[in-house]
Amino acid sequence: MRLLVTGGAGFIGSNFVRYWCEAHPEDNVVVLDALTYAGCRESLSEVEDKIDFIHGDMGDKVLVEQVLREHRIDVVVNFAAESHNSLAIIDPQRFFNTNVMSTLGLLDACRSVGVARLHHVSTCEVYGDLALDSNDSFNEASPYRPRTPYNASKAASDHAVRSYYYTYGLPISITNCANNYGPYQFPEKVIPLFATNALDDLPLPLYSSKDNKREWIHVLDHARAIDMVIDNGEVGETYHVGTELERSVEELADQILSILNKPSSLKTIVPDRPSHDRRYLLDSSKIRGALGWEPIYDFQSGLEDTVRWYRDNRAWWEPLKKRAPVDESGVLWSER
Ligand code: NAD
């Protein structure tokens, strides 16, 4: 198979590329990434000699058409996005430009050249939020009720992708996934931020809504789910990928501090952000029943390995932390 991975220099994309090169060594993998502040070539260093890397924007239709033709691409997997929910509150235009308008460039290129599958990676956040004590979860038929600019831009991109299936017959599939954790995540996101701050004895900034919960999945469980959807998932279908493993933000901080043997006094409360979603929970019975996918990573040991990875890879995250966007308070992070 010949695979194009857009956004492959980001957190999930780079883990997916490493996973794919190991699971399918006979395949050709091309990565297209705009290398925004969140993109990092070094995240692909372990597979550098196994892939073709192209620095470019997925919204550049002419470029994407050329890549699709020259590399005779069968399947496109789209991870490219602006992904930092808190940054979207400060700079929403940037999120709609990338997550909606650039996605359209990719869709149009796929439509004009033709591909066997365009798989689009989305999020649980398109559905809005749940009460902390609710027994509900979101399934694939739940209505979209995004409440923040990031969530709305992701919702719009999902709608655009689906519209190309219904209108032009573009063979698409979509996965909406819970919060991923693992190595190579930009230190603006909660687990790498808390781990790297704790390593340096810096405060862990907890938004005052520290009881908000998130559902966590190891990034390689997510990568395997996408592989199964590309392989056996129905064209035009959406699959949820979640674990039902929930942690509040404060529980996560406590767990990370305990792994690193650091004092709980490092926890510091900071003012909440607007329209902060309390909780999301995905019903993943469709992918489990139809494709036989199950998560295999245990959260405690997966988190320990992840925190140790940040301890051992300071050279990777230190330069990224210096270029991370900040607001006037100097704190800007998202709990994912
Ligand atoms: P990330 O911010 O780490 O990576 C995004 C990558 O996209 C970066 O390498 C960036 O340079 C690249 N990019 C941005 N704009 C581009 C463009 N126009 N053309 C080409 N490349 C571009 O994000 P992530 O956490 O790896 O998320 C990947 C995808 O998964 C996103 O669509 C996100 O919404 C979705 N998602 C993430 C999570 C999570 O927990 N991180 C959960 C569910 C869904």
Automatic annotation (TrEMBL):
It comes from the Bacteria. Its cofactor is NAD(+). One of its GO terms (molecular function) is dTDP-glucose 4,6-dehydratase activity. It catalyses: dTDP-alpha-D-glucose = dTDP-4-dehydro-6-deoxy-alpha-D-glucose + H2O. Its EC number is 4.2.1.46. Keywords: Lyase, NAD. Coiled coil: none annotated. Gene3D superfamilies: NAD(P)-binding Rossmann-like Domain (3.40.50.720), UDP-galactose 4-epimerase, domain 1 (3.90.25.10). InterPro entries: dTDP_Gluc_deHydtase (IPR005888), NAD(P)-bd_dom (IPR016040), NAD(P)-bd_dom_sf (IPR036291). Residues 4-306 form the NAD(P)-binding domain. One of its GO terms (biological process) is nucleotide-sugar metabolic process. It is an enzyme of class 4 (lyase). SUPFAM superfamilies: NAD(P)-binding Rossmann-fold domains (SSF51735). NCBIfam families: dTDP_gluc_dehyt (TIGR01181). Belongs to the NAD(P)-dependent epimerase/dehydratase family. dTDP-glucose dehydratase subfamily. PANTHER family: DTDP-D-GLUCOSE 4,6-DEHYDRATASE-RELATED. This is dTDP-glucose 4,6-dehydratase. It comes from Ferrithrix thermotolerans DSM 19514.
